[in-house]
Design the sequence.
């Protein structure tokens, strides 16, 4: 962390180029610097479409998630 504080400008330049930086304390990761674009949230329509697609393919043995929902178990 000391190194990150003393070299913050250089780290920000690296992140601006698209790199991700992990900051550690005593070897354990404590923070991550990522480009601002990487943290943008998707619009709700895209998220809903991806969830619908994911839901179609999930099976629990011979029971589907939709079957569980219909039975009121999920």
Sequence:
């Amino acid at each position: 962390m000391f190194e990150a504080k003393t070299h913050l400008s250089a780290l920000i330049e690296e992140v601006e180029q698209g790199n991700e930086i992990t900051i550690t304390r005593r070897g354990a990761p404590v923070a991550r610097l990522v480009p601002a674009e990487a943290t943008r949230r998707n619009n709700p329509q895209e998220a809903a479409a991806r969830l619908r697609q994911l839901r179609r393919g999930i099976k629990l043995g011979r029971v589907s998630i939709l079957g569980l929902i219909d039975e009121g178990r999920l």
Notes: The chain is about 45% helix and 20% strand. The first strand starts at residue 21 and ends at 25. The radius of gyration is 21 Å.
